Amino acid sequence: MSLFDPFPLGDLPLPSSDEEDSGRPLAERMRPRSLDEYIGQYQVVGPGKPLRIQIESGNVSSLILWGPPGSGKTTLASLVARHSKAEFVQFSAVLSGIKEIKAVMADAEKARKLGRKTVLFIDEIHRFNKAQQDAFLPYVERGDVILVGATTENPSFEVVSALLSRTKVYVLKALDTQDVMLVLRKAIETPHRGLGHLGLKLSEELSEEIAVASSGDARAALNTLEAAAQAARDGVITPEAVAATLQRKILLYDKGGEEHFNLISALHKSVRSSDPDAALYWLARMMYAGEDRMYLARRLVRMAIEEIGLADPDAVQQAMACMQAVHFLGEPEGDQALAQIAIYLALAPKSDAAYRALSVVTDTVEQTPAAPVPLRLRNAPTSLMKNMGYAKGYKHAHGEPDAVTDMQCLPETLAGHTFYHPSDRGFEQKLQERMRWLEKKKKKMAGLTEEDIER
Fold first, then answer.
1. Which of 64, 140, 149, 303 has the smallest CB count inside 10 Å?
2. What is the pTM of this model?
């Protein structure tokens, strides 16, 4: 037999007994043996999803799994083989070439003629060149193999179109923090395969710290747990052990608790106080602790609106551009965009005049009767509406000098109310001057004398 002979079903690269597990890494020992043990990717293999139904029925066609490291691609391929009662062949695109591919395919063809299925799992399929990928086509087309390719790269760019057309692409996501914490909890509680027989204790806070640091990679989280467990004291995995394993300081941070809100409050108030250094510090604290970058981007957009407003109208545009950059680049490249906008907002002129104006006018709406729209502001598309006085007295601004009219647009009960009071900072200085000029202009149009206007 060659190195590339298929694994018989009973020898799938899934642990077959607890005794055999002892020398394996924790991440390998805890690899799910069934779909019920599989954690995450509910959008793909959750109850009732098409792929889960196909796997459970043992009738899966060739597919490509696209997702980040540690998202469960290899495990899912193994489960496909197990449920299909198929022989499992696994090799890496990094180590194999055309010669090995042809040898595997010849064996698969023989197996098919004997009535046996073969699942061919190719890790990092994007590393195969066009000729190597083309070599799979006839075997996939004839059904000699069920091809399961795994890639961390966009298959639209990295997999030849002919192969793509013969496979179904499923997108796997990085596991969220809660899913990774569930993986860790199972590892702590499961004896022999996991660490349950050791009676170790891991606090929820440290479990979350490990999960956040893993960035959705279950394998990385389990490797961290295994290393930290070896340094446990009196059956307790300590913050010092986790910190030493991660090679970074453990920061107190609960993304759903008080410290989360304390830190975002500190960032917001540092921006409001025009302190770029403090803003950067609190931003870095949150990023270091694994805070969702899009959450930070959204909060910075909010700061641009609430704290800067019309004192610098470019601020919200800059913040929105930052949010797009963070979404487009991801981590860690997008972090620089967050730092840049935090500095910009901290140094920008501040005004909450627009924010306060909306608050005041909202209170007015709540506390006063709903006044009817003045007839002069209503459209009159029918003769009846014209006869009722709709649009009568309306002045079209573009037909007036300087495109300004003295027409009152507020309801009569609120005539003369001023809700927006611009500050004298930044661009609002110009808005303040414009409002004064408009007020004077409208008074003149209303027939007031200069003396009356000055009063």
1. 140
2. 0.55
